[in-house]
Amino acid sequence: MASASASPAVAPAAAAVPATPMLKDELDIVIPTIRNLDFLEMWRPFFQPYHLIIVQDGDPSKKINVPEGFDYELYNRNDINRILGPKASCISFKDSACRCFGYMVSKKKYIYTIDDDCFVAKDPTGKDINALEQHIKNLLTPSTPFFFNTLYDPYREGADFVRGYPFSLREGTPTAVSHGLWLNIPDYDAPTQLVKPRERNTRYVDAVMSIPKGTLFPMCGMNLGFNRDLIGPAMYFGLMGDGQPIGRYDDMWAGWCMKVICDHLGLGVKTGLPYIWHSKASNPFVNLKKEYKGIYWQEELIPFFQSVTLPKECTSVQKCYIELSKQVKAKLGKVDEYFNKLADAMVTWIEAWDELNPAGKESAVAPSGPPK
Fold first, then answer.
1. Which residues carry attached sugars according to the database record (predicted)?
2. Global pTM?
């Protein structure tokens, strides 16, 4: 593991850094990469006060350069193998799913994860968007998954609950995940990329909303914040990439598992602001090779997650996740042998998580919500 730090006082852009950044000592930024992290220069005014956890994918002998002035840890595959031993088999290789190792080794309450081809976007007024600050605001305010508010996020300045919204639900529920969006290159699957190669997302929607209980969504991991204490053990990005029959479903798999568990435990998920600028379209033909089985399998996966129920005895994220792994093996194992392997990896992930985050830090949340 490599590490480095430097005082903000000697950093080139120190003057631009806010004096008291939100959650400075309570949040880690996790970045998966195979290349030099020059993109951090654009993010320096927003990211420099925070600790970075960089997970290097690919060749561990390759040196990754990080701009000066950032406080960071860098882990490569050799580090992962050394730290986790045989349990390192649950961490994907040659896929951005390797980022979840950073979630495991963090000791902070909150995580923000971003891809290295994502840059600072501008709002419609031309102002740079501080994506991290907006994620923090989302995470620090409640969600409303049990009853939809037509003004979207009622806790946002200038908004409130509309007429007819039950007063008994206005306290909301803790927000576990903040799902951000992207301008420029859309997050499309390979078939859509192929038929719309020039399409760009230019539509900025100034809104944040809670995803309703019982509703799934395709989570994208390139601009994502979450409360590690509340939902961390469920943010496993699965077995993808090298040696696996599927790729590019890592974040979506984590999103489906996470949402089922959040619904059970009475936790909230927000989507919408903030936007980042996604700069680089991946090759649709390469993507198709990674995705094609997933495109077929998702027609089985979505009904599975829509019908999953977790027993009331599952009062922690870990217990929920182990129960979910059993149901994956029992029901999705019939779809393909891969899901038996994935279910075993889900158990290994929880075992490794608990080893690095000993008992007493178990993510226990009593199931809550409106009467059923």
1. 163
2. 0.92
